[in-house]
Amino acid sequence: MTTSRATPHEKTEVVGCPQCDWVSRRVPLLTNEQSECPRCGYILEDGNNAGQYTLLAVAIAALVLLFASLSVDFIRYSAAGVEQSMTLMDAAWQLSYFHEKVLAVLVLLTVIIIPCIYLLCLIWVYSQLETSGPNRLNLYLLRTMEHLKPWLMTDIFLLGTLVALVKISSLAEVRLLEGFWGFSVFVVLLLFVYERAKRTPVWQYFSVMNRPDLSAQAGLTAGEQGLMTCTLCHALNSRDSRNCYQCTEPQKTSWWRKPGATLALITAGAIMLIPAHWLPVMETVRFGNDQPATIIGGVTELWQSGDKPIAIIVFVASLVIPVAKVLVLGVLLLLARWQTPAMVRNRLLLFKVTDWIGRWSMIDVFVVAILVALVRSGTVMSVYPGSAAVSFAAAVVLTMLAAMSFDTRLFWREADR
What we know:
It is a multi-pass membrane protein. By secondary structure, this protein is of the alpha+beta class. 52% of the residues lie in helices and 12% in strands. It has helices at 52-70, 90-97, 101-127, 136-148, 154-168, 178-197, 203-206, 259-278, 295-304, 308-334, 341-358, 363-374, 388-405, 409-415; strands spanning 14-16, 23-25, 34-36, 43-46, 73-79, 82-87, 173-176, 227-229, 236-238, 282-286, 289-293, 381-385. β1 (14-16) and β2 (23-25) form a beta hairpin. α1 (52-70) runs antiparallel to α3, α1 packs antiparallel against α6 (178-197) and α3 (101-127) packs across α4 (136-148). It starts with 13 loop residues before the first strand and ends with a helix.
């Protein structure tokens, strides 16, 4: 019995831009070529497609390294004759032990579970390209991968680990063990898979619905033609469609991308920043003396100890970025009604930068998780999570959700009026 390779549905001649709603004509792409939206510069398609088997091999290697890193020690430290070691899982388990279950779940999800699910989905989908035709399961897994991407924070966790080691290097001898190096290689492989997978569109291989007969014209917006662009796969659909014909993503989610929802999330994030910076983010007990530390206190300590580059990184990630993100998103939302074509590109660039750097604020949460898991030697020296840690994590998550709900098409709609 022979199996024929699945072939994608015929591509449409036009494609919509999820960032500005502009409809563009498709052009043939060679290797290393990209197709950009002529209106806003958004990359619509990429001709540098990674090989199916290359992605599969790297994804499997990354998954094996992740499981291997979980089974061996991550870091070991010794101070005052006391030696302690931690595994990667301890970063979550120790937080849970100190009744910070919300933080424990957040660390477990963003560092281990979500990356694992992402890789498993990718491995399954790309292994089906040769044999599977229209398939709802594969489409569901592809959509799951897209929704999980913003929450892949292994690279931030790795940087947080290095910051935590700098914090205690003057108080203890620290050794990086097999788990750390295995996890570091895993992060590199995951980033490779992430970058290459988004350049290899495979929606058409599994589409279960026929392409609707839409008379879409390039050079106009989708809205002007009674259409809407799927924000996930960029396919054009009728405004009355309940699901995208190509990826089956629900299209009736306009409540999520309304200014009111974005404003509510921004406000909630701003409120959570107040206790996050006012209360101690962690407490250090050294020879019986309790020393609570706020975020700004930790930055000051790093600066005074001579670790000025690390102090600057923590200051920017934990103080500047969260506050700036709230202010920038709020200003962009409130000024959306006062747009001109000359302003749009600058404001769009500002939004994209703000959205990209926002996730890096999680570095302080990961620093706390590492120190709590590693430094637990009773009254000799132990670190405990502070009451500000949950507030800070909530502020980061809320501002990330605010950026996801921000509809950049508002810029162009108001500028065109």
